[in-house]
């Protein structure tokens, strides 16, 4: 990477190009650290809900897929965009504080990406042998896991190409990933909103997580926007996400806290319980058929 920037800066003063990262705000720095901690905390209710319920009921498979891919696109973008600041740190153009501050976006987005993909990982691990898990749905989630892993490998190749060529290619790759992230962020909420609307209950989807993340999303977007050297492609997807997640949160609030009392239909809790009971009965029936088949094979 250093060789790449040496080629790019050979025609000008590299220190002057690093001036954009000087004068970082201490308040913004502290705020960004708190936001990073908040990101981790915000996902805990969702992790807890998956562990307790041991089912993916209520979670859209497409939501898991698109959410994970969106995070990888965003992480790829910020790794490339923030590489200039890392070069400035390497050549001594920035002091320690400004250097650390210049990488806060990467730190925050790295945490968010890890936390988002961990939802998919937990669903795969926790629900694998659960009697509450729809087996056909689990197969689809397994395929999602494979696709996300493949996407991660492709992103590593993109980063390698970006650092091996010139700034035009690097920023082109970064911008494409930023745009794809924003697009998937919009798209990913559509299947989840549809799933929640169809089921009339949130299921394993955590309202607590969304209560933290929705307002936090707007704050997080602001910290990315006002950060030194910020690029629009790194924060626009989070603004869109906050708006759409708010829509999903309102839908969940309606089904859980209002629909059961205002409509003559079943409450969200009753609908979820019926869905889980159906899955359990189907799995038990399948197990009995499997045992019966094995018994017949032994007799033969």
From TrEMBL:
GO cellular component, one term: membrane
Parts of the chain that traverse the membrane: 20-43, 63-85, 105-126, 147-163, 169-191, 203-226, 238-257
Subcellular location: Membrane
Predominant location category: membrane
Membrane disposition: Multi-pass membrane protein
Keywords noted in UniProt: Membrane, Transmembrane, Transmembrane helix
Record carries keyword Nucleotide-binding: no
One Pfam match: PQ-loop
Domain of life: Eukaryota
Keyword Membrane: yes
PANTHER family named among the record's database cross-references: PQ-LOOP REPEAT-CONTAINING PROTEIN, SEVEN TRANSMEMBRANE PROTEIN 1-RELATED
Protein name: PQ loop repeat protein
Protein's organism: Candida tropicalis (strain ATCC MYA-3404 / T1) (Yeast)
Taxonomic lineage of the native organism: Eukaryota, Fungi, Dikarya, Ascomycota, Saccharomycotina
């Amino acid at each position: 990477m250093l060789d790449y920037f040496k080629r790019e800066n050979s025609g000008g003063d590299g220190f002057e190009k690093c001036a954009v990262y000087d004068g970082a705000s201490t308040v913004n720095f502290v705020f960004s650290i708190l936001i990073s901690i908040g990101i981790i905390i915000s996902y805990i209710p969702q992790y807890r809900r998956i562990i307790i319920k041991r089912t993916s009921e209520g979670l859209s498979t497409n939501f898991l897929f698109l959410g994970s891919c969106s995070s990888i696109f965003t992480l790829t973008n910020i790794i490339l965009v923030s590489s200039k600041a890392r070069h400035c740190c390497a050549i001594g153009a920035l002091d320690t504080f400004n250097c650390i501050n210049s990488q806060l976006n990467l730190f925050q987005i790295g945490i968010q990406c890890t936390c988002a993909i961990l939802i998919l990982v937990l669903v795969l691990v926790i629900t694998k042998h659960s009697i509450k898990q729809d087996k056909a749905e689990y197969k689809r989630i397994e395929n999602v896991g494979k696709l996300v892993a493949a996407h991660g490998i492709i992103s590593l190749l993109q980063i390698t190409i970006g650092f091996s060529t010139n700034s035009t290619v690097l920023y082109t790759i970064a911008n494409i990933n930023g745009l794809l992230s924003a697009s998937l962020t919009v798209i990913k909420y559509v299947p989840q909103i549809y799933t929640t609307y169809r089921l009339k209950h949130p299921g394993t989807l955590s309202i607590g997580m969304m209560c933290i993340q929705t307002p936090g999303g707007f704050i997080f977007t602001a910290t990315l926007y006002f950060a030194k050297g910020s690029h629009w492609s790194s924060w626009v997807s989070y603004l869109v996400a906050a708006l759409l997640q708010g829509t999903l949160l309102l839908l969940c609030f309606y089904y859980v806290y209002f629909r059961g009392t205002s409509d003559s239909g079943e409450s969200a809790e009753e609908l979820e319980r019926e869905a889980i009971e159906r899955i359990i009965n189907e799995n038990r029936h399948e197990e009995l058929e499997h045992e019966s088949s094995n018994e017949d094979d032994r007799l033969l």
